[in-house]
Specification:
InterPro entries: RecG_C_sf (IPR038475), Schlafen_AlbA_2_dom (IPR007421), Schlafen_AlbA_2_dom_sf (IPR038461). The chain is α+β, with helices and mostly antiparallel strands. The chain contains 17 helices and 20 strands. Strand 9 and strand 10 form a beta hairpin. Helix 9 packs antiparallel against helix 10 and helix 15 crosses helix 16. The N and C termini lie far apart (about 80 Å).
């Protein structure tokens, strides 16, 4: 057990931490007991230390702690021990020591973490969930229903929230179109799946979207969310909708007249909502040119990987908390997409992407996995990270906010400008140029207008890979610039050459010789400088 001097030294170095809290503590009150409960409950913390008889003060702009002592240490110990033994659902036996710090009596109380089988610890008079507390950062937070399962480190047992029968709903209130959409998607994944041969009512039972109560088939919460008609959803789950918001610029604007460029509110069965919102996101994203390896056909791809934004949307729908009255929101800024859903992460953010039992809506999530809208259990976050890395996009961000009760996924558009290929130095003839910069992978994307690269130019690019004669490369440059004015970065990526090598050995000499012209001849260093044919420049 650590000493008061050691703990006080740590406090003055790093301030309070999840495992240490200092209190003046003139008596054993409510605040003290809440911290004891939080230390006992928090998974993986291993318990925590209370330092009693210590005062917090500001010194030269920095928070410091000093010993001020407790007046009646024996009474404080006795009261705390009594409360831990009688006021909680299980008896706790914290370890207590009395230390002298600079002539002041300070109590050190260590509360060990209890076994998972004994969690949650809570105030008997208050009950669950509000009588239980967790240690989140340096604060003691009241538990929610979701926290109780996280403390036990298990999924909510069946029937959990999404498996509960909705009494005020009949099977006729489920949408046949949504059931048909499930059959369509499931057939694409596994045409031989047993449930596809079932009639609709048996299919719903197999998916736990409906359960028989006294012989009558009744929809479950998951059934209504997955297959409910719009009016049914409006009646039973008012905010079970997804709003897609297009914001001008990179910041949320308070002025309601200038805030949104467009909005789309969808309240439908979850599978139909997913399809409509995913299509809206893809339609709205800028497309890029993508030339697959060993292919002569160019493709169009969104600048944010399709797999990443679909997985983020699937997570926002299937893992949100439907106990709270707030819709799921997808906000498209000019430089990023944010997916915001109610319900903070049941796992610490540092553990996201690891497989483990932490699902808020297991039936809903299972159906999304069955049709391969979402990844296998526990791997969705890992997939988003991997796909963004593969496509050269900035790393995704995941923000879990207990205070607001929300979870946010942020996907940023890639910054293409200035990237060029890394290739080997030429050994005679004209190869890819010296290796000064990294090579974008085959998914590297360029913004419009390169998305419309004609087939004949894609075919030409396939012939210019590797070492080719200088004249052939320059002929290719002329063909590309005849089609459209292109920057050095765009040409370097299309031709898989180093930008500086291409500019110094080919582009500048071709401008000097009159084969190419600058788009902004009066300013050679213009940030949007591009190369075109002289004839094209004179016409433009």
């Amino acid at each position: 057990m650590r000493s008061a001097v050691e703990l006080l030294r740590e406090l003055n170095l790093v301030d309070e931490s999840p495992g240490i809290e200092a209190k003046r503590a003139s008596e054993a009150g409510k605040s003290l007991l809440e911290t004891v409960i939080a230390f006992a409950n928090e998974p993986g913390l291993g318990g925590g230390y209370l330092l009693l008889g210590v005062e917090r003060f500001a010194s030269t702009g920095k928070t410091q702690y000093r010993a001020v002592g407790v007046t009646h240490p024996d009474k404080l110990q006795a009261d705390l021990a009594s409360q831990c033994a009688t006021m909680l659902n299980i008896s706790l036996r914290p370890q207590v020591r009395v230390d002298d710090v600079e002539g002041q009596t300070v109590l050190v109380v260590f509360v060990p973490e209890v076994a998972t089988a004994d969690k949650p610890v809570y105030l008997q008079a208050t009950g669950l969930p509000r009588g239980a507390f967790r240690r989140i950062g340096t604060t003691d937070q009241r538990c929610t229903d979701d926290d109780l399962w996280a403390l036990r480190q298990v999924d909510e047992p069946q029937p959990g929230f999404d498996a509960k029968v909705v009494d005020d709903c009949d099977i006729e209130e489920l949408d046949p179109a949504a059931i048909a959409e499930y059959r369509r998607l499931r057939t694409l994944v596994n045409p031989q799946a047993d449930e596809l041969s079932y009639p609709d009512e048996e299919l719903l039972e197999a998916l736990l979207a409906a359960r028989r109560i006294k012989g009558e088939l009744k929809p479950t919460v998951a059934g209504v969310l997955l297959f409910g008609k719009p009016l049914t959803l409006r009646r039973l789950f008012t905010t079970a909708e997804v709003s897609y918001v297009r914001v001008v610029g990179t910041e949320w604007v308070a002025d309601p007249e200038r805030r949104f460029a467009a909005t789309l509110d969808v309240r439908k069965a979850a599978l139909l909502t997913f399809r409509q919102i995913a299509a809206a996101i893809e339609d709205d994203l800028p497309k890029g040119f993508y030339l697959p390896p060993d292919s002569m056909q160019s493709l169009q791809e969104p600048l944010v990987p399709r797999k990443a934004f679909r997985e983020a949307l699937a997570n926002a729908i299937s893992h949100r908390s439907y106990r709270f009255n707030q819709p799921t929101i997808v906000v498209r800024y000019s430089d990023r997409i944010e997916f915001i859903n109610t319900g903070y992460s049941l796992k610490p953010v540092s553990e996201l992407g690891r497989a483990g039992p932490a699902q808020r809506n297991p039936i809903l999530a299972s159906v999304f996995r069955d049709v391969e809208i979402a990844e296998a259990k526990g791997s969705g976050i890992r997939t988003i990270r991997r796909v963004c890395e593969d496509y050269g996009c900035p790393p995704p961000e995941f923000i879990s906010d207990r205070q607001s009760g929300t979870f946010t996924t942020i996907l940023r558009l890639p910054v293409i400008e200035g990237k060029a290929a890394e290739v080997e130095k030429p050994q005679g003839g004209d190869s890819a140029g010296p290796s000064h910069q990294h090579e974008p992978d085959s998914h590297q994307l360029l913004g419009d207008p390169l998305a419309t690269l004609p087939f004949e130019l894609a075919t030409l690019l396939a012939t210019l890979k590797g070492r080719v004669p200088s004249q052939a490369l320059r002929s290719g440059i002329l063909s590309l610039c005849a089609w459209h004015a292109l920057t050095a970065d765009e040409l370097a990526t299309l031709l898989q050459r180093d930008r500086h090598y291409l500019r110094n050995k080919h582009l500048i000499p071709m401008v000097r010789d009159g084969e190419l012209a600058l788009r902004f001849p009066e300013n050679p260093n213009h940030p949007r400088q591009a190369y075109t044919l002289r004839s094209e420049l004179s016409r433009g």
